Structure formats: C-alpha cells, structure tokens
Amino acid sequence: GVPSCANKWLLGQKLRKEWGFQGYVTGDSGAVADIYNTHFYTPTMEDAIAEAVNAGTDVQSGLWPRDHPWSVHGEYIDLIPKAVRAGKLKEAAVDEALRHTLTLRFRLGLFDPPQDQYYEHISPDAVRSDGHVAAAV
Question: How far apart are CA 100 and CA 3, in angstroms?
Fold first, then answer.
C-alpha cells in the first residue's frame, strides 16, 4: 500500500476534496521518514520528502535530538530545497504547504504582537486543569 503521508488519494481526494478539510496536515514524528526508512516506498529520503509534500503532508513533526534544545532540523528542512533543485518537487507544492500552515497561524494571531495574542494570556495553571481533563475523558 501507500504510506499515509505519501497518499495523494487520502490527503487530496478524501480529506481535502470530499471532506472539505482546509487546515494543514502534519506527519506524526518519524512518519515522513518512515516512507523511506520503514516502508521502503521510495529509493531515497529525498524522494520520500517529495512524495509527502506532493501528497499533501504540509508539515513534518519535529524530531529534536541533533543536540536538542528544540532542535530545528529534520528531513523537510534539510531536503525540501534539494528536492526542489533536483526537480522532484515543484515550488508550487511547497507554496501550497506553506499556505496551509501560515493561514492557520495568521488566523490564530501568532504573528500579532504578544500582548495581542489570545494564547499569551492563558495561565499555565489552565493547562491540563482538572476541568479540562474531566471534559476530555
């Protein structure tokens, strides 16, 4: 079969067209790399990245290490530019992924001044509060 993060039918046809999803799609930690490493679906990691972005996986979940403190590396950051230069991935597909992710971030106000951001004013005590846990269960 086709790995979910590389599945154009699942992400494009079903999720976006039939169900009308307008948000962004995130591959779970390691799921995009698994297209190559575990599923052996593509001959290279660069091809796996191109397949994922072309299918509609807009964001890759971060994998930290590489000397941690919330490291900013990963196959998307490292290989999308190479895949574009190699002609395996069109800039239009990258633009589409960016449009999906940035649209939501703008709607959430994440580019507004911190004092104007709703989420900056939520007390840390509200996170995983008893009321929220009870509502989730």
Answer: 21
**Is the model's pTM score more than 0.85?**
no
Residue 22: is it exposed, middle or buried by C-beta count within 10 angstroms (0-12/13-18/19+)? exposed
**Consecutive 10-residue runs of the chain (137 residues): their mean pLDDT?**
97 97 90 94 96 95 64 78 97 96 91 88 86 89
Q: How far apart are CA 1 and CA 122, in angstroms?
A: 43
* 3-state SS class at 4: helix
Place of tokens 């190479």: 82
Joined together, the tokens standing for residue 45 give 């990691």
List, for residues 38-58, the tens digit of each pLDDT value. Answer: 999 999 999 999 999 999 999
Active site residue 78: no
Hey, how many other C-beta atoms are within 10 angstroms of the C-beta on 71? Answer: 13
8 A C-beta contact, residue 49 and residue 3: no
Options 28, 78, 95, 112, the catalytic residue: 28
Q: How far is CA 73 from the centre of its chain?
A: 13
